[in-house]
């Protein structure tokens, strides 16, 4: 029932924690848990929409509340469909392009998967 990540070198599942470090008993590789999260190509962070659906790159979502576009007078209206989202890191975790507005970032908590 371990939730530790597999060894990044040999993929062994038998990693264990030694203080701040993770240790692989099979190839003796040691690494820090934080480091492995940062260097893994794909982060394990799961981004969910307002109702708990897991979002993925390429999903279509709809906006669940009017959102002001920072630095302009534009508003993304509730119900606006946003196609082909891209997940990213940060406070605003969705990168997208909206018709009539252009590229912008959204918060996953204000969208719902379509
Ligand atoms: Zn290993």
TrEMBL record:
Protein origin, superkingdom: Bacteria
InterPro entries assigned: YjdM (IPR004624), YjdM_C (IPR013988), YjdM_N (IPR013987)
PANTHER family reported for this sequence: PROTEIN YJDM, PROTEIN YJDM-RELATED
Protein family (similarity comment): Belongs to the YjdM family.
The protein, known as: Protein YjdM
Residues annotated as domain Protein YjdM N-terminal: 3-32
Organism of this sequence: Pseudomonas songnenensis
Protein YjdM C-terminal domain segment(s): 47-114
SUPFAM superfamilies assigned to the protein according to its UniProt record, in alphabetical order: Prokaryotic SH3-related domain (SSF82057), Zinc beta-ribbon (SSF57783)
